[in-house]
Amino acid sequence: MRLANKVAIITGAASGMGAATARRFGKEGAAVVVADMLEDEGRAVADGINAGGGKALFMALNVTDEAGWKRIVAETVRAFGRLDILVNNAGISGSATNDMLDSGLWERVMAVNATGVFLGIAAVVPQMQKNGGGSIVNLSSISGVVGQAFVHMSYNASKGAVRTMTKSTAVQFGKDRIRCNSVHPGLMPPMRTSGATADPEVRARMLKAVPLGRAGEVDEVANAVLFLASDEASYVTGAELYVDGGFLAM
């Protein structure tokens, strides 16, 4: 198993890419903390992992809550004895608006997508330093690399912040054997918070820019996260892994 004896926290793990990653980690031998605000859905993901022979606990977490982050790290170590992996997956879409200059949406998206990632990194680094290392995988997006006409600029800005925050983390904490990498999904199944990106006409236009000619699947993102989290990527840090069907190659 590729994550045997590892302990991982995955945020936004009650649905979508987070849930797919949690299930994959469970199959690969990791003890998984399913962290989310959606308690029923999150508990169902954890229960499914346990039913399949893995180890998982659900823990409620609002990623914008610094105290909540400290609590969940402490509870993880109490339950499993260590912490090896953080997957900062939780995020909200910036496409559910008709006002591209909505300052309130800017605050909400930046709080979850950017500040939430920083708070996660800040919470886990001290524990990983005690462990002698660890792996952090941050979910950015193709939106963190290019501008887009149909999403609020807060989404591009927040995912761009994740992209560069990843590199900063890799540089600052490489001496502690803490690796940090980012994954950049392209067109995927719509998020719960999606707006325009869930519209069939918008998705059809987006597909025209994808060389592989199809949308991605959440399990394809989970596979990329698994690689970066695992010891197979032991000399990979500060890197960007695109899971976008070739979109950013255009």
UniProtKB/TrEMBL annotation:
The keyword Oxidoreductase applies. It comes from the Bacteria. Keywords: Oxidoreductase. The keyword Secreted does not apply. PROSITE patterns: ADH_SHORT. GO terms for molecular function: oxidoreductase activity. InterPro entries: NAD(P)-bd_dom_sf, Sc_DH/Rdtase_CS, SDR_fam. Belongs to the short-chain dehydrogenases/reductases (SDR) family. This is Cyclopentanol dehydrogenase. The lineage of its organism: Bacteria, Pseudomonadati, Pseudomonadota, Alphaproteobacteria, Acetobacterales.
